[in-house]
User: Fold these one by one.
Assistant:
Number 1:
Amino acid sequence: MFQVVKTQKQQKQFEETWEYFCRKYKWVNDPYAENGIRYMLLRPKEIKEKNSILGTIEFIPYDPINVNSTVEGRFKFSELIEIKENQDRVWEIDKFCLHKDFHRLGYFSLFFQIFDHHVKEHNPKYYVAIVEKKLYRMLKILLGPMAVQVGDPLDGPTTSLVPVMIYIEDIKNNTSLVSRLLSQIPDPQPTPKKKLAFNVFNGKKLMKMFRFHLAKIKE
């Protein structure tokens, strides 16, 4: 499930979510592009928690002379032949994040519902982005040769950043890949690490009590 940001209320929700992650991980908060298209990834209905927003992503029409470009100032995508020849069908990806409690549970795959919607609405040929190394590895696992590192890693605030180009039109034309990406179902259990830590703590406490009472009985 997702929402396209259209109202002031939705924009405020997007900003609160994204800027929270910026503060937490010391990310750069790039300006909100006037022509950007923003999406919020929502929790599935079966997960009942106060905050319904899992993550965010922003798509911006690529413009190499845009002084506020989220990617061109860090890596010269404009020098790549594919970008030069198809500039009007290139989009930047920015403000791309997933809440840490939902990492490694399959929720990242829900972003492909958003990609599918954006592709159908705007027909991009390539996406370009500067992403954290961990995110690039995830894209590589899911997309294989259609997610390509196009330059050396860059220094980031907490981890290295990877300039990446996604061959989104090739993905769109690969019906079996699209079907697989859109059919992935995440684990419905939220924040498992916290629950596991609580249960393990209780389990250890109960075992300690059981051993104490068993020793008393043997006495």
Number 2:
Amino acid sequence: MKFFGSSPLASFVFLLGAGSALGATIYDRASSAAPKQVSAKDKCPTAKVVTTTTIQVGNAQVNRTTFACPDDSLRQASQNPPPSTKQLPTGSFARRNAAECRNPAPECQCGQSFVCNCQNVTATAPLSTDCATLISATQVVAQAEGPTFTVEPDNFELISFGTCALEWTNFACETLEYCWDELGNTGGVVNQLCFEQGGGTAAACNANDDLWLLQSLRVGS
């Protein structure tokens, strides 16, 4: 791993606190046993909440929480990615570039190539309708707060609604910036190909520069 030194109006309640065609590939994976550590919260049980925000999307409330991991648990857990078997053409993803970023690369990771895996890590997948609401929330946040977000080293961003969550983890030694529209687009593709089509019950998307991980997971009951 390499480390370097028209949607509804949003209302926010602060509760706590402080590329080419994406180059992305999705794989289907069938697993006989679910791994013990799936989400970043599983991998870093000592993670602390930094901020929590509620995002109003129509009649739905979406939760957004930033966590900080006090050690290198996230990096250690990332050393054993799940196996992959089936590739999805990169054309499934919309084109993105770094034009929306406030910072240059490598801090800006918009458009960075990545590989996604559909996984069987929970008994059932998130409800696709919950994921669709969550994806809409990324558009609302982008309108209200700007097109990108930043994540500190060893931190992870978790947004969730109902049974569906998107989780973005920073493995780098510097702050990283990422685009909300790219997060939402990837979540939409994963929702269709992994969840709606029965490809898996979760998905993990690893950056080709090894600096971040995007996961789509089932949360709650």
Number 3:
Amino acid sequence: MHKKQFLNTYKTVDKLNKETQKTAEKPSLYRSKDDERLIKDFHYAKFQKNLHNTQQSNALKALLNKKDWSEEDTETLLAALR
């Protein structure tokens, strides 16, 4: 009986070790370092463009200075951010 419990414990430990190894070895999100750099540069450039557009938008500036917003103002804001 003790020998059987002992072997089952080893099996359990082996299963746990295999599961931790599988979770530790996640595949990379990118195919290569160059792909990673290109994708990150693309997203950063897209962010910079959107930031520039929102900072230069007169409609957004007027909305931010307004105290009471109507439904039309909310729709204008959403349209400007798309």
Number 4:
Amino acid sequence: MNSAPLKVLVFPILFICFSLHIRAQGLTPATQNLANKLAAGNVMAPGTWDSRYAKGKDLINRNQYVAYRALCDSADLSELILLLNHPNGVVKGYAGWALAERKYPACDSIFKVFLESEEKIHDAINTEKVDLSVEFYFGVYYSNWKDDITKEDTLFALGMIKKLDSIMLYLHRPTLLLGIALDHNNADPATYEQVRRWALENKNEKAIIELARYKKQEDIAILKQSGKTILQCAALFPDEQFWPCLEPYFSQQKTPELFNAVAAYKDQRSANTLASFYSQINSIKLVENLYEAIITNYCPYYNNLLEMIWTKDKAIEGKGATFLAKADPQKAATIFTKGLLNKKEFHYIYLKERYPGKGALYLMFDNISVYNKQQLAEVISSCLNEKGRVLSYFLDYIEANNVEGLGNVLLNKFNPGHMPVGDILRLIKIILSYKEEQLSQEVIKILKAYKQNRYWHNEEKNILDLLKTFNMDLD
């Protein structure tokens, strides 16, 4: 490293030391030895705050992890601060990470020095050198991923990242971390002017998108000139003035960004437009993208489209099923039943933000059990016979809700030689609880044949005890 960056590094660090009244006399031999090992490895291994990397196959990463953990455990604060001035950038980086783990209050000052030095080091992921400031940033960010994380650790990391992000936003040159700082900004009123500066002067795409999040009328002219980025802006700030800017994209290739932009308007016009898009797409992946845009921006105008997607593509998840059931439970029972009885492949949609309630099938079963109960057994039978269905999932529901009329279909699924013992016992219990003589005799017949199986002795006692509760045996 040349002398100019060195001066930039030395003076702030000395200031930090004096401000905390630390008098460092030098490094102990043990700390010096660890610094030498880290310098010899000369790479910042990702995740050295995470013990899983100690078990990795990569010898360099593992050795760096061991040396780093030893440094964290044995070096005192003054030694770590001295190591920030080490001639090797990797050692500086590890010292910075160790200070972040110690919840050092001046980590933002260290970050500023690394930024100004523009020093680059090797890491274990990239083929080219990366900024030391970037490695330090992520070390702070992930410092609350330690094995023994505490609430205090998390609060420190979140508070410090906010300070580091602020430094990035107020900097007068773009860096690799600016986009991350903008992602974290979340329309913070305190940083509005800086975000606007990046959007207006530098035409930074993420800054333009973040500017939309503030939803200020005075920014509309800037946002309208953002090209295709207007799609992401409108999704966050669905102002009427943006609609004409969206229309040229309606006839182009359909994308998740387009779906989200239109869905954000939540009116009959947007519902009709989305329905038009749906009629033009033939990819299940695009159907999933459209569905997610509808759920993210849900309004009652979108119920008809949710029904169309379910009826045509048999695609749904828990939140959509809930919306339909609440809007018109009787109608929902009819379309749920119709969809579940057809032979189309079921497409369960996985949203980025998972619905915390019951799964879509359970929700539909619940609805059908109230508003179309006479077909519930038929619906569950149909689902059970679909390829790839997990029997235990249905047994949970059948058992919890005492669903009747499933004796024959469950008997067809009863193959004790090829199922977990838990499912064996539950199937026996459910089928026998129907108290149908023919079904009971078939169960006994299957179990007698199963006695010849090599696993019978492992399960014999539990099966015989269960049969006794029904006053039955295998003799």
